[in-house]
Amino acid sequence: MYITVKETATRWNISDRRVRMLCMCGKVKGAYKEGREWKIPRDAKKPEDGRYNSKENILEEIEEKKKQLEKKRPLTEGELKRITEEFVVKYTYNSNAIEGNTITLRETDLVLKGITIDKKPLKEHLELIGHKEAFDYICELVKDNIKISEKIIKEVHYLVLADKRQDRGVYRKIPVKIMGAKHEPINPYLIEPEIKKIIKEYNKSSENIIKKLAKFHLDFEAIHPFIDGNGRTGRLLVNLELMKNGYPPIDIKFTDRIEYYKAFDEYHVNNNIGAMENLFARYIKERLDMYLNMLK
User: By CB neighbour count within 10 A (0-12 exposed, 13-18 middle, 19+ buried), where does 118 fall?
Assistant: First the structure.
């Protein structure tokens, strides 16, 4: 008896893409491809994930790939524009889809070109437009190498929350709960001192950028400083810091959202940043590989 990639992904609590990768690498016993679809034995055991047996090794590999990229010819203005345009459509789609936006990837492309999607809420259109404007803004900040600060965080959030004008760039004033999360955000009066604390810790840290960014992102989302838009803002801040440090921005896929959520649970339950660190590392490595292959 065989099951699909999607069914297997649900059973193993990993993304569809990861299941396909395991099948392609011959790690799933008895799996075979029929046309374009993988057939996976219902009783197949989830292979041990050996991608990050040594965190230090993967971080070293990323550093090496970054150095290789720096030695390549620079992208032309046209190439960079095309890559950025393609990235921002997918990134805007995924980051909003994670938060419940129902506009599709194709529709996201149209919305960012100024086209209204019939039967889709104005709120969802504004979320996409606001996210694109916030991404454009962090790209400007990268050019000036601006340090992360409360002011920057609020300005990014102001652009993200285009659909809720009264709450833009303002810390929440009421307690909140996150449905299904294993953590309860702090009370409003603690937000400002805690944000200042994690900014100070981040700016002073001499840790590898991936490690300290994973910790910063986990802490930022735990504080949940705004009434809405925390996830989108937090992921934009991650990309701001990656680009400032010479890395390409990353796009956490909607299809990987379960893995992403579990990284937060791992931190709150076991005080372990490893799952988020691994997720960031994988995406950064994939982006570096894409650029290196392009410039061969």
Answer: exposed
- pLDDT (0 to 100) of residue 56: 67
Per residue in 191-218, pLDDT tens?
999 999 999 999 999 999 999 999 999 9
Q: 18 and 58: one domain?
A: no
21-54 tens-digit pLDDT: 888 778 898 999 888 889 999 999 888 765 545 5
Question: Are 223 and 254 part of one and the same domain?
Answer: yes
The neighbouring-strand residues paired with 184 are: none
Residue 110 in tokens: 């149209």
> Strands, DSSP E only, in the chain?
2-3, 32-34, 37-41
What is the per-residue pLDDT for 19? 87
Which structural domain, as residue segments, surrounds residue 2?
A: 1-49
d(CA 262, CA 27): 23
Model-level pTM greater than 0.90? no
Q: Do 123 and 133 reside in the same domain of the chain? A: yes
Q: Which one-letter DSSP state was computed for residue 52? A: T
Domain identity same for 134 and 280? yes
CB 99 within 8 Å of CB 81: no
